[in-house]
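In this supplementary section we document a worked example of the pipeline. Step one takes a protein sequence of length 538 as its only input; no multiple sequence alignment statistics are reported here. Step two produces a three-dimensional model, which step three serialises into structure tokens for compact storage. The input and output of this example are shown verbatim.
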Amino acid sequence: MMDNQRRNRILPITVTLLLLTILQLLTGCSGSKASGPGNGGAGQSQAVPQPTEMSRVIDSVYTTERALALTFNGMGDEERMDRLLQKLDDYGIKASFFLPGMRVAEEPDIARRIAAHGHELEAGTLNREAIEGLNYEQLEREVRLDLQVLREHTEADPRYVRSSWGEVSDALRYAAEAGGLRAVVGQTLFLHNWQEETEEERRTLIRNYVQRGAILALDTEENEDLLANVKRIAEAAEAVGYAFVTLEELDAKGGARLAGDEVPGYDAALLDSDAGAGADYRLWRGAAQSGDDAAEMTSRHATGQADEQAEKQAIAQADEQAGGRATDNAGAGSAADRSENGGASRAVALTFDDWGSDAAITPILDVLAEYEVRASFFLRADGVVRNPNLARAIAEAGHDVGNHTYSHPVITELTTQQLQQEIVQAHRIIAEAIQQPPAMLFRPPTGAFEPEDLAAIAATGYRDIVLFDVDPEDYKRERTAQQIVDATLAQAQGGSLVLLHLLDGTHTADALPGIIEGLRARGYAIEPVSALLEGYTD
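The serialised model returned by step three reads:
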């Protein structure tokens, strides 16, 4: 870095050259390159009439590949940028930089160094102005001139544009289309300055946004903890085995996503105002099929207040992931079954409830894949809506994707209308996320229900209501993997439905190999619930 005295001598010269450069661009006298998708053809400096169509917007990419993009806005000073580039090199990260034209014209060598390190240069508007209130003509000029500066001073051929703080407007989308750009880019997470969060809270937030197809954003000028945040992000991705790619590479991995009502099975769950009019259902209790067994389970959970409170605390992480109310996930209500079906003699189903981060769920999927086990997942849809790629990964692996309501309420506290709304909303979110019909399997949060709830559930289209008879209490963070294994094997019988969870901070994934090996050593096959149910008739 130059000393302050030298910088003060050079600054007026730099500003003068910068103003001359911009003046050239405004008057159309620049000798800028004629190539690139955003040049608008001949007369690049001339305004482009508003197109009839807008560019698309991407804030994440619809993919199940284990990749995400790290992106940066702005262009800090030379020392800050050199340190950032070294940190990215240390972690082997190739990132995407949205550069403001004014800064590139002022210090083009910095922009060239970013490109020389293998990073992607994209358009960041000329002046870094907030776009609120700017019309098409103003934003078209901002984008057009930014593209010209980047092409004039670097070898970049930008494909995307992002506003200074990731805002999106129709005017910007029209301007991007006029510039021949592929998309206006938002972000899954724009990480600003921390307030009073602990280090654990900071790492937890970042971990929750390290997702397949995610686009993470930092500002190189504003972010006070820039290098430490890059370190946290890199370590979170490494822990779950995800790779960073440039935005263009990530975009290329994305697939077409049907709108919800275009997905087969989207309308298989419907609200039914006549819910109490004798809808047929099947209640599956696993190996605990007798009334006495069911009553014993109900009594244990009705009186176990300490256990209930412990679980509520343990699954509070689910609220962070899904934004809803997490409650007891390990009870069974007592109600007369219209169809009391026994369990298959030598088969057991592993079932997983709720939602969690990629860091919690991807290791579970990896173990199941390693042992070639298909399982059943009852998903909390307010988490799915924030991370549809992960739900799709579950479905693509061949597992049942069932319904665990939208916000995880205790259904005995809901009206019939509220209950049905929870189920139908969850169904539609899940169907759109996985782009195929969900398994028509429902598990009530907490396992509690009233007799009249069963007909209301079935009336939505979810005729198979799935409980469980094996509960190793894996939701408790203090439970070790071995304790979870031992409890599962001690309770499991032919036809058992094993209750497990998708919660962060627990040891479920660590316990899975022991559970699978132990069940198989005892002669049990492991099948998804849908396969177990195929062997029964009403």
